[in-house]
Amino acid sequence: MSRSRSEFKANRQNSPLGIWNKWLLEHLVLAEVEPRLEILPYQEVLIRPIGKNVLITCHAIVEGKNLITDLHWHDPSGRVINDWGPRNQMHTMVMPGDNTLALIFPSLLESEAGNYTCTANFASSEKLSKTVQIETIIAVTWLDAPEEQYPILNSDYKVRCKVMANPPPNIDWQKNSELITPGGRYVVESDGLLIQKASESDDGVYTCRAIVIETGELAERNIRVEVSWYTCRAIAIETGELVHLQSHCHRDRGVSAPAEPFSSRQGVGTPAEPLSSRQVHTPPTFEDMGSEPVEVIEGEQASVTCKAKGKPQPKFSWIKSLKQENLASADRFGVNELTGVLTITRVTKEDDGEYVCVAKNAAGSVERMVRLSVVIKPVVVTYRNISIAMEKDATLQCSASGRPSPSVTF
User: Fold this and answer.
1) 218/233 Cα distance (integer angstroms)
2) CA distance 181 to 171
3) DSSP readout, 183-237?
């Protein structure tokens, strides 16, 4: 009796040899992916600042997701971290998808540094494990670095900039965007920059820069420094043969300060001349910026610096002429009012045009027009493939666009 081909095939699949082949095929497929746990971010040592929110995930890489059981995170002491703890403490959370468990630090503590291990069981027989080390750092923190400081004329003054970080930072200084080389009247100290015998030429914007080499962190604090004068009034007090003049001084900004006593034979009750005059304010004047347009490249970040001097040191703003728009709050633009730097995070062709830099202080304001020219990278617009017989003349055409107009070569 003859049997159909389908009946023969079914019987062959259900035979002991067919069942064995099916089992072997399934397990060979499973063996193509070695069961393992993957921790993301993928680093053996994760360096994170204290106080920051941190999330680490553990994911099982296996064929057959239902074969993974008992997926847990363990703390440095080996204890299982629960998912039902307070949300403001370290805890775990099951992520959407298959076999992914997150370890969450709502606000990383220095004491939470250590080795964290993710474990799971595969097919009820194989133990999987993966460990990550967390190291904590202290990000750059400004402890004492006021953004406005006022040295006294002809006195030594330390521009305060006390910084905390772990690992410890390297500190350098800039004045009006130019690096200060220690020496002369400038002394770099651990908690500031000492200016010896401060003069009005020391007015400006000082940048205290903290660099942590190990972590790549760079932080800056701009500090406006303005040298002030004292105005003093002297009162004559008779003490024997000499008349001592006790002076009461105040800075032009109204902050009281002691003054050196001195003696004089001037008559009792006669007011003394001021020991110094009040501070003189001068309106801003621009430094030479040239008259050529400033070129910026489409799609890239660009910065334009506007420099002016005056007393007190002026503050800056930038206006786009066409729209009369203050760029301090505009999308993609940033303005540093102390340094006069205009930053464009991603230049577009619409940024081409005229801009106005405004420098203003208590004595007045000045404006300067700056033209930005956006350079547009060349793009091939059209080209055509042609076929031509041998030893015949041919003309190839290719056109490209850009600003300024690009030259085309073959």
Assistant:
1) 47
2) 12
3) BTTEEEETTEEEESS--GGG-EEEEEEEEETTTTEEEEEEEEE--B-EEEEEEEE
Nearest to 265 by CA among 297, 303, 236: 236
- Note whether 78 and 129 are within 8 A (CB): no
Take residue 31 and report the two structure tokens written for it. Answer: 């063996």
Per this entry, what is the length of the chain?
Answer: 410
Other C-beta atoms lying within 10 Å of the C-beta of residue 28? 9
Q: Per the confidence metrics, is the pTM higher than 0.90?
A: no
Do strands 192-195 and 204-212 pair parallel, antiparallel, or not at all (unpaired)? Answer: unpaired
The number of angstroms, rounded, from the C-alpha of 55 to the middle of its chain's C-alpha atoms is 21
Give the burial string for 309-329 (b: 16+ CB within 10 Å, else e).
Answer: bbbbbbbbbbbbeeeeeebee
Four-residue CA torsion sign, 90, 94, 96, 99: positive
User: How is residue 317 written in tokens?
Assistant: 């703003």
Residues sharing a CB contact under 8 Å with residue 5, sequence separation 6 or more, in sequence order: none
- DSSP letter at 15? S
Residue range 328-367, pLDDT digits in tens? 999 999 999 999 999 999 999 999 999 999 999 888 899 9
The two tokens of residue 89 are 């403490």
Q: Which domains does the chain have, with CATH numbers?
A: 36-137 (2.60.40.10), 145-225 (2.60.40.10), 230-264 (no CATH), 283-377 (2.60.40.10)
